[in-house]
Design a protein that fits this description.
The protein is α/β, with parallel strands linked by helices and 177 residues long. The protein is built from four helices and nine strands. The longest helix is centred in the first third of the chain and has 18 residues. The two termini are 28 Å apart. The relative contact order is 0.23. This is Peroxiredoxin.
């Protein structure tokens, strides 16, 4: 299933989901003390490449937090599956769960079914990466239909630095009419 993609420079959708640490989080709004948000959609517990990517995200977390960018990972997994998965990852960032198919569609994600993974219990979102600025606008977006085509997190951190620094007064890339 494919869906219309979010446009760079658009207002990021207001989606709130429960997080493993308790309470709920907005996919678009950073926690207090941060002004930008990096939201990473991962496929779920069934995906070993997601485990590797989330562990790398843990390693890169200081690069993001030093720039005032909060980090949130999210999947369609249930609370139990997400918690079991995060035992292996030991994230230092919040992890949201329960992303629904309509929410996946709202984010413009590719959606795969049970036949696209092992130990899969329900349709799931393929990877997505979204960087939202302090105005709620989508600054950086990357959507993939496979788990092995994801952006390098070191380059994403550098890109956020460019957007927040020398290029902060330029239009958001990809928005020329």
């Amino acid at each position: 299933m494919t869906t219309p993609k979010l446009a760079a420079g658009s207002v990021f959708p207001a989606i709130d989901l429960p997080v493993l640490s308790g309470g709920t989080r907005s996919l678009a709004k950073p926690r207090d003390g941060f002004d930008w948000q990096l939201t990473i959609v991962y496929r779920g517990k069934h995906c070993p490449l997601c485990t590797t990517y989330l562990k790398e995200l843990n390693d890169r977390l200081p690069d993001f937090t030093a720039q005032g960018t909060d980090v949130l990972a999210v999947s369609a997994d249930t609370a139990a599956r997400a918690a079991a998965h995060m035992e292996e990852v030991a994230p230092q960032f919040d992890v949201a769960y329960g992303l629904t198919i309509p929410q996946m569609q709202q984010l413009g994600l590719y959606i795969s079914g049970l036949e696209n993974g092992r130990d899969v219990e329900a349709p799931f979102a393929e990877p997505g990466l979204f960087v939202i600025d302090d105005s709620g606008l989508l600054q950086i977006t990357d959507i993939s239909n496979v788990p092995f085509a994801r952006p390098d997190l070191a380059w994403i951190a550098k890109g956020i630095g460019f957007r927040r620094g020398a290029f902060s007064n330029t239009p958001i890339n990809g928005t020329h009419a």
